Amino acid sequence: MSDLSPATHTGDPLPALTVVTGTKPRPEPLDPPMLPFALVGVAAFAVALLATWLAEAPDEWVEICLAGLLWGIPGTLTMVVHDRNRKRRRALTHAEFRVVE
């Protein structure tokens, strides 16, 4: 099994390794804006809280929805900061990248 390790292989590239990492360009990682996802999550918990409260659901369900809503607030603020730094992160990895505002 050790003779199949790419680190110790000295001959031609392994066919399976060439298929995986050969000449294909490496795809860029996704870096979408995260704030919309956070806002949708907070809105979903707000709607669930309202629905469970109006339906007189068990108190535990209402508390879970309230907890999700309250935990979503610092999460949303974190995503605001994350998205604010996207431009800086992108400029560090792609010098040709320019944001037109």
- What gap, in angstroms, lies between the N and C termini? 55 Å
**Average pLDDT for all residues:** 81
DSSP helix count? 4
What share of residues are in beta strands? under 5%
**DSSP helix fraction:** 55-70%
Structural class: mainly alpha
Number of strands: 0
Major beta-sheet overview: none
Radius of gyration: 24 Å
SSE ordering: HHHH
Question: Which term fits the overall shape?
Answer: elongated
Can you give keywords for this protein?
101 residues, mainly alpha, 60% helix, 0% strand
Structure characterization notes:
The chain has 4 helices and no strands. It is mostly helical. It has a domain at 28-93. Helix 2 runs antiparallel to helix 3. The radius of gyration is 24 Å and the shape is elongated. The N and C termini lie far apart (55 Å). The mean pLDDT is 81.
Please give the structural blueprint.
Layout (H helix, E strand, L loop, with lengths): L14 H7 L13 H20 L4 H26 L1 H8 L8
Summarize the structure.
The chain has 101 residues and is an all-alpha fold.
